[in-house]
Design brief:
This protein is an alpha+beta fold. The chain has a 4-stranded mixed sheet. A 4-stranded mixed sheet has the order 2-14-16-15, with helices on one face. β17, α10 and β18 form a beta-alpha-beta unit. α10 runs parallel beside α12. It folds into 2 domains: 227 residues, Alpha-beta prism (UDP-n-acetylglucosamine1-carboxyvinyl-transferase, Chain), CATH 3.65.10; 210 residues, Enolpyruvate transferase domain (UDP-n-acetylglucosamine1-carboxyvinyl-transferase, Chain, Alpha-beta prism), CATH 3.65.10.10. The radius of gyration is 22 Å and the shape is elongated. Bound molecules: ligand EPZ. Ligand EPZ binds next to α1, α5, α6 and α12.
Length: 456
């Protein structure tokens, strides 16, 4: 086991898949939720730290299982890491080896993003193919084709991607790359690789997600020359070397969106901050269409006022700035209680409707036809034992449990722990009645007098 230096063990431990979340529904929530740093920014930026042969300090890094996994991978590559609270110090002076460990990469798709920085820094990288996961096959052909366009020789043997740049001074070359699909990961991999390439790289049809722009800002803070991040065309002028940086990661828009839906589904009033409202334009628009009030309380704070009833609304997931696929399951939970039929279309991943079966166990009325879910609103959900299938599906089940009559128990919490920091405490602090039991357990419903904050 690779030592974790000062890294807080989140619920990444194997016990997480034995623990159970018990939720007693129909509590009205009230108060403020503090939003953590963005998981999908932190993971990409941790890979980006490989580009820098000096110290990097990252702030607002959430304590999540995925961050712990990525830290393990960087440690295995020879980097030094030290996490204190939400500050992560990374020293990538000595990259001791160029192969990321198989057993770690197969658990965390984002770890594949190290291939770009490794190749740019060392001229060689061996990274196991990230396995498919619950939501889809998750191929990496766009990453590979882009690196090949930049002069890398890439072979895939026995599940390992071997990439190297030939020649005595192995350096990637700038290239014009068009992405067949605006892949977030491929955009990030290629943008990072291009920061140290010889010449100019243009990435067209690039992903525009805020996390891509955050990664670009991080690289620029290290001295990289990047223009257009956050648009569909990114231009990078390669540098010979990057330097030390102290960088603050953006707030997690998906965590914030999840709590906004928690306010809507429980007909409550909640505020969330810090957050960048512009990162949630599509989510706010759909919450308003469904009938909730969403107010920008200050430049970094949003307030939701849930409506008494929810208006059936169609949703189609799209690359940013379209409606985010990472919010699809959460909105499905909300729309199970709407006053009509909603059609939810998942266009980004081929298998991201697995939460339908579990929501139906709670009394929802959802039918799947291809990549469409037809959600017929019902007056009430009923608490039930359910099993999480992936990260955002877990969040949807928590939201459904908050609204349901009676008790919901959720198993397979390792999915939830990947992407939500202190979720139970954050919900308890705004009046939700729930508790996490390590190992399966049955308990009486807490009396209404019990202060939720004191629940274990
Ligand atoms: C990132 O995954 C996020 N993960 C995902 O968040 C998010 O759902 C996704 O972007 C879309 O926004 C991280 O940033 C760590 P993609 P990524 O490459 O980069 C296909 C969460 O819940 N594709 O944009 O893997 C792919 O199969 C996670 O926080 C190729 O075909 O997503 C998918 O259908 C889940 N070939 C589509 O593109 C490739 O080479 C979008 O994938 C790459 C992708």
């Amino acid at each position: 086991m690779i030592p974790t230096i000062g890294l807080t063990e989140s619920h990444a431990s194997p016990e997480a898949d034995k623990s159970v979340l018990e939720i007693w529904g129909r509590s009205t929530l009230k108060g403020h939720v503090r939003i953590s740093g963005a998981k999908n920014s932190a993971l990409a930026i941790m890979a980006g730290a490989l580009l820098c042969p000096e110290d990097c300090r990252l702030r607002n890094v959430p304590s999540l299982a995925d961050v712990a996994s990525m830290s393990q991978i960087l440690l295995a590559l020879g980097l030094k890491l030290e996490k204190n609270g939400d500050i992560l110090d990374i020293d990538a002076r000595n990259i001791r080896q160029s192969q990321a460990p198989y057993e770690l990469v197969s658990q965390l798709r984002a770890s594949f993003f190290v291939i770009g920085p490794m190749l740019a820094r060392l001229g060689v990288a061996k990274v196991p193919l990230p396995g498919g996961c619950a939501i889809g096959a998750r191929p990496v052909d766009l990453h590979v084709r882009g690196l090949q366009a930049m002069g890398a020789d890439v072979q895939i043997e026995h599940g390992i991607v071997h990439a190297y740049v030939s020649g005595s001074n192995p350096r990637l070359k700038g290239a014009n790359i068009y992405l067949d699909y605006p892949s977030v990961g491929a955009t990030e991999t290629l943008m990072m690789a291009a920061t140290l390439a010889d010449g100019e790289t243009i990435i067209e049809n690039a992903a525009q997600e805020p996390e891509v722009a955050d990664l670009a800002n991080f690289c620029q803070a290290m001295g990289a020359r990047i223009r257009g991040a956050g648009t569909n065309t990114i231009i990078i002028d390669g540098m010979k070397r990057l330097h030390s940086v102290d960088y603050n990661i953006i707030p997690d828009r998906i965590e914030a969106g999840t709590f906004l839906v928690a306010g809507a589904i429980t007909h409550s009033e909640l505020s969330v901050s810090p957050i960048v409202p512009d990162h949630l334009t599509a989510v706010i628009s759909k919450l308003r269409a469904i009938g909730a009030k969403v107010i920008t309380e200050s430049p970094n704070c949003l307030r939701i006022i849930g409506a008494e009833s929810h208006i059936a609304t169609d949703i189609e997931t799209l690359p940013y700035p379209g409606f985010p696929t990472d919010m699809q399951a959460q909105f499905m939970a909300l729309l199970t209680l709407s006053d009509g039929d909603s059609v939810i279309t998942e266009t980004v991943f081929e298998n991201r409707l697995r939460h339908v079966a579990e929501l139906n166990r709670m009394g929802a009325d959802i039918r799947v036809k291809g990549n469409h879910a037809i959600v017929r609103g019902v007056p009430m959900l009923s608490g039930a034992p359910v099993v999480a299938t992936d990260l955002r599906a877990s969040a949807a089940l928590v939201l459904a449990g908050l609204a349901a009559e009676g008790k919901t128990t959720i198993k397979a919490l390792q999915h939830l722990d990947r992407g939500y920091e202190n979720l139970v405490a954050k919900l308890q602090n705004v009046g939700a009645r729930l508790q996490r039991l390590e190992g399966e357990g049955e308990t009486e419903s807490p009396s209404t007098s019990l202060n939720p904050a004191n629940v274990a």
